[in-house]
Amino acid sequence: MLTSLSNTLLATALLLIVVSAIQPLARRLMLSSTVLLAGVGILLGGGATLLRNTTQTEALDDAARTLLDFPINADVFLYVFLPLLVFHGSLSIDVRRLARDWVTVLVMAVVAVLVTTAAVGFALAPIAGVSLTACLMLGAIVATTDPSAVVAIFREIGANGRLTRLVEGESLLNDAAAISIFTILLAQITSRHGAEPLTAAIGFLASFAGGIGVGFVFARLVVAAVPWLGGNRTAEVTLTLALPYIAYIVCHQFLHASGVVAAAVAGLTVSAMGPSTFRPQSWQFLQDVWDQLSFWASSMVFVLASMLVPKLLLGVTQWDAVLVGVVVLAAMAARAAVLFGILPVLEYTKLSQRVPSPVKATMLWGGLRGAITLALALSVTEHAGVPDRVQRFIAILATGYVLFTLLVNGTTLRFVVRWLKLDDLSASDKALRNQVVAIGLGEVRDKLRHTAGEFGFSAPATAHVLGGYERRMKEETAANTFDTAIGDRERVTLGLITFASQERSVLLEMFEDQVLSRRVMENLLWTAESMIDGARAEGRYGYIQAARRRLQPTLRFSFAQWLHRKFRIDTPLMHCMAERFETLLLTHLVSVAMSRFMRRRMEPVLGRRVTEVVGDIVARREDLLQDAMDVLRLQYPGYAEALEARMLRQIGLRMESEEYVSLRRESLIGEELHDELLRGLDTLRHQIARPLQFNIQSGIDRRIKEFEVFAGLQEALLHDLAMSVTTRFAVPGERLFRKSEAAGSVLLISRGVVSLKSGAGELLLSTGEFFGEAELLASQPRRAARATATSFCHLLELSAADFARLLHETPELKLRMERIAATRQPAEAPVAPKPVEAVSAKLLGAEAVAGTP
Asked: Where do the Cyclic nucleotide-binding domain residues begin and end (predicted)?
């Protein structure tokens, strides 16, 4: 056993050396490393078989026997390698960008698998000499695409980013769908009886749904456990390594659902929540480790699976080659039917974004098959319940099809991408390139001149080097078409994308310095991504819509307000208020910090006019942000001050840490002292990170006294009133009630403006006023057609019961309210724009609306 183990480990080590050597060879030959790995595996497997059967090479029999008897089977591929590869594939995907193409991905992952399975199965059934079920099972096996070779080529030659995302997204659920169908068909063959189509369809959907649920739940548990690890990067990576195996095995083995879907969904969940859960350095470390694990796994899978090819092709005949050709044609036709038949229908019905024809053609030719297909074919040959004739049929045709896609499609895909010009930069990037390079060369030249003077380089050497930069600058400036190739509108869009992207980077830096909490970080990152996507898709309008959503309360906040008003449950609202305070304050800090970036980096590249327009849009967003902040500051000044002090202390700790790192780099302090200083900073950070206590009732007494209607009331009544009201925050455009709605409360405007619209016109009420009392006094439904907040509002809500009790104790208050209400004069025509339009106008600005950009 020890000898066998040592031989196996030695063979594995030698295979890893081969894998390492293939990488530079693949670049030199301009071939995919995956294709070369498959070729090497086939040569090793065939060579070992030849040596084993030749009497002239007895000295090499042990090495050949080690390769041929390598302890690996279908279960090793499906249980050891598959969860790891699927999880890494989903972990490396940008979920937010992929979400824009979710319909396309779902069609290619599920519909394309079903169409391919049916096309291959029905094309082979009349001529293959095996049952239709066996032919359909072969169709499911060859429907699994392998993106590793394709994506590697795309990234190496700089192919279109969307094309890469589509291929990666397709492959995630593609394997899951194909394996689910394969499992159902394999059960039919081994049980010797068919299943009803409806039963099979229900089983397929249940398997998918079960995998989605299990993967999401386990991933959320892992993400929730990360903060408890105290920032230990090795522990965090170890936890994520356990996740795909737990999700896969629990789902597949115990729940009989799709383990591949579970592993994929787990990876997608971690990918979506990771940047706001892991510290940026930890997140980068995790991705680096997973990249290395995936490289080892995918390389070994291809080599080991390819070593089995000679064994799977034993007894191949000319007729088998004909059948392989039928499989190739049927699978290609099925994929083409989905790409050029179904996707255009989805595009026409607006269910999917447009996929250009060159991208479709590349996806058609890039449907490579690999290790998963071979592993499924191997599992059939190892299953005792499958007839020998079916085993041979599956093994030869699946292996032959894999070889065809690797040796034909894989070797020509690079040329197809370049022929279709999918590796070219977009028109805006081409124009921007010369502009950026020229500016960058200028900055490098100036810094180099300063460095040469500082270090005393000779004048001739300095002039020679700087002259080279001068020549390059002139060449780039002469070729610069930025001003003519890109219009003002496109440049404004580019500026907004740049601004939002930099804002995202600043947020990540603040998160690394522990200036903001994980939940707030998650919300801010999502909205920053939304602003980038909105600007990219719809320009200024899309950016504005996303920026407005950042100021809207979340569903969690709205639910907490409802609990507070209906059941006097204050704890959820306290937490939400603290988070909203932190979100608004951090958004303000980031906007202020970005002003220097706009002047120093954006203006030289995009021009002063475009930067001014972008700055105007951002400034008006800042005005709305300031309005929202003022509403909270007015009510909770103490909390605002404490929150600002804590953030300032955290920024100070970051500066202190940078200073100690600089001293260590300059060898002014030793390693032991440096580590001791950083440990002290960690202790201070832990103390500062304690959540601040938020009192939802803070300042209510003071605000109640500022209402004119309550002037002169006894202190006891004012205190009782303050304890009776509940807090309600409203955003511009929020509807507070509708006409004929049951009157259940009186609303006091502590801050903001509310519009009451009825048949008589529109009435605007502002700070210190109230509404909703007339209906309660008359015991009638709401009279106004609707009440809408036209600005950020802080409202105090008094229930009907508490209002009645207050009037009973102070009869003069009713007369005072009636007298104030009688002075209200609604305008016959609206005196203000609609709330939502007002917000849009404020964000856009008169200059930006009327301007050219």
From this structure: 709-817
Q: Could you give the percent of the chain with pLDDT greater than 90? A: 7
N-terminal to C-terminal alpha carbon distance within the chain: 75
Residue 182 pLDDT exceeds 70: yes
CB atoms within 10 A of CB 802: 18
pLDDT at 289 over 80: yes
Burial class (CB in 10 A: 0-12, 13-18, 19+), 426: exposed
Contact, 537 vs 500, CB < 8 A? no
Q: Where does the pLDDT of residue 829 fall: very low under 50, low under 70, confident under 90, or very high at 90 and above?
A: very low
Whether the CB-CB separation of 438 and 492 falls below 8 Å is answered with: no
**73, 124, 138, 147, 306 from 315: Cα distances, Å:** 21, 19, 18, 30, 17
- CA-derived radius of gyration, the chain: 34
pLDDT tens profile 676-697: 888 888 788 777 767 677 677 7
Distances in Å between the Cα of 41 and the Cα atoms of 34, 44, 301, 305, 330 are 10, 5, 10, 7, 27
Handedness of CA 660, 662, 664, 669 (dihedral sign): negative
Q: What is the DSSP string of 152-199?
A: HHHHHHT--HHHHHHHHHHHHHHHHHHHHHHHHHHHHHHHTS---HHH
Concatenated DSSP letters for 276-300? GTS-HHHHHHHHHHHHHHHHHHHHH
- Assess contact for 108 and 345: CB atoms under 8 A: no
Q: Which residue has the tokens 């002063």?
A: 608
Per-residue pLDDT of 445-498, as tens digits, reads 888 888 888 888 888 888 888 888 888 888 777 776 666 666 777 778 878 888
Q: Residue 92 in 3-state DSSP? A: coil
Q: How far is CA 118 from CA 103, 136, 701, in A?
A: 21, 6, 73
Query: Using CA atoms, how far apart are residues 220 and 477, in angstroms rounded to an integer?
Result: 51
Which residues, including other chains, have CB under 8 Å from residue 84's CB and lie 6 or more apart?
244, 245, 293, 294, 297
How far is the C-alpha of 364 from the C-alpha of 710, rounded, in Å? 74
**Distance between CA 848 and CA 840 in Å, rounded?**
11
Q: How confident is the model at residue 158 (pLDDT cuts 50, 70, 90)?
A: low
Strand order in the sheet with 786-789: 735-738, 786-789, 754-758, 761-765
Q: Name the token pair of 618.
A: 């951002």
Strands (DSSP E) contained in 568-615 are none
- Amino acid letter, 64: A
Share of the chain above pLDDT 70, in %: 85
The model's pLDDT over 120-140, given as tens digits with 9 standing for 90+, comes to 999 998 998 888 889 999 999
Cβ atoms of 172 and 89 within 8 Å: the answer is yes
> Region 42-56: what's the mean pLDDT?
75
Residues found in the chain: 853
Q: What is the predicted pLDDT for the residue at 846?
A: 34
CA within 13 Å, CB half, 539 = 11
Question: 231: pLDDT confidence band, cut at 50, 70 and 90?
Answer: confident
CA pair distance 9, 7, nearest whole angstrom = 5
